[in-house]
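Supplementary Methods. Inverse-folding protocol.

Structures were first reduced to a discrete structure-token string of length 246. This string, shown here, constituted the complete conditioning input.
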């Protein structure tokens, strides 16, 4: 983000309230810019990645401006859609972030019974670039299975000929690497509905637990606990498109 914006419009878009509410906030001396109290909501503010270090509300750094992308460790039991029943991933974020404009959206989805790496962004172009079939961004899943692997799954998944039940288009080739008798890594480049679970069902198995630990070459950090998130850096976004990491 660059350029300038009116203070009231900027803070309203970041979820701090309506423009009128932000004007009142400023008039009460609760907003500071570069160490100076700003009481006029019409004040124009220079935008940039350093904004949180320059602008404060009630003594706290302002939330990161758009474009904002988050790296979140999705825990089990939460959903990725506002429309699904149950607690959503958006409830793991500060409440006012739900009022941000542009809105934050998950980059693809993980179902309630799947944990792991999830990106959330307000950058529509980035979102579509990652999920576009043409980009073929890899996603790696760790699956715990109900029954032992037979040894034939890798060839079936890599063939590019597997058609899931209820579909007519075959899946793109996928890579399976066994980790144990009932545990495997599966790398896919698509994002069809419940794809990993349905792939194992197609070869006569059942996924008991599923965890995604990589998107592109971006690996979920071990020190990011379930339910926690951090703001993605430019270099994080770059490695999403950087191919597979050993």
């Amino acid at each position: 983000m660059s350029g300038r914006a009116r203070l009231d419009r900027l803070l309203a878009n970041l979820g701090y309230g309506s423009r009128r509410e932000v004007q009142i906030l400023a008039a009460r001396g609760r907003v500071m810019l570069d160490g100076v109290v700003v009481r006029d909501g019409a004040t124009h503010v220079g935008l940039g990645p350093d904004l949180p270090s320059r602008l404060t509300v009630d003594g706290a750094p302002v939330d990161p401006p758009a474009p904002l992308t988050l790296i979140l460790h999705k825990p089990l039991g939460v959903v990725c859609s506002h429309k699904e029943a149950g607690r959503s991933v958006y409830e793991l974020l500060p409440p006012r972030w739900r009022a941000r404009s542009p809105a934050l959206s998950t980059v693809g989805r993980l179902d309630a019974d799947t944990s792991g790496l999830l990106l959330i962004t307000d950058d529509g172009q980035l979102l579509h670039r990652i999920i576009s079939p043409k980009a073929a961004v890899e996603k790696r899943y760790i699956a715990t299975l109900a029954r032992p692997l037979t040894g034939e799954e890798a060839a079936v998944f890599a063939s590019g000929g597997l058609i899931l039940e209820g579909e007519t288009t075959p899946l793109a080739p996928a890579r399976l690497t066994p980790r144990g008798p009932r545990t495997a890594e599966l790398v896919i480049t698509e994002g069809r509905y419940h794809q990993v679970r349905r792939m194992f069902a197609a070869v006569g198995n059942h996924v008991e637990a599923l965890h995604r630990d990589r998107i592109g070459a971006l690996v979920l950090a071990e020190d990011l606990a379930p339910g926690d998130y951090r703001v993605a850096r430019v270099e994080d976004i770059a490695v999403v498109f950087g191919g597979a990491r050993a």
